Amino acid sequence: MCKQAGLGIEDLEKMTTGLCLDYIYTYIEELDPKKPKRKPTRKATQADMDRL
Fold first, then answer.
1. Burial 22-47 (b: 16+ CB within 10 A, else e)
2. The domain containing residue 3 runs over which residues?
3. The pTM is what?
4. Which residue in 19, 24, 31, 48 has the most C-beta neighbors within 10 A?
5. What total of structural domains would you count in the chain?
6. What gap in Å lies between CA 26 and CA 6, rounded to an integer?
7. Does 42 reside within a domain?
8. CA distance 33 to 14
């Protein structure tokens, strides 16, 4: 699983167990074809900040 997610031995040595599991969980969530895709975000403009 780590190899598929792009994690090498060096990466695993630097990561805690929890961080490694979070990374893999996020990787699996991104690959889920049933999950609806998020709309791309855009930067807020000054007008957006003024409305806030």
1. ebeeeeeeeeeeeeeeeeeeeeeeee
2. 1-34
3. 0.53
4. 24
5. 1
6. 12
7. no
8. 30
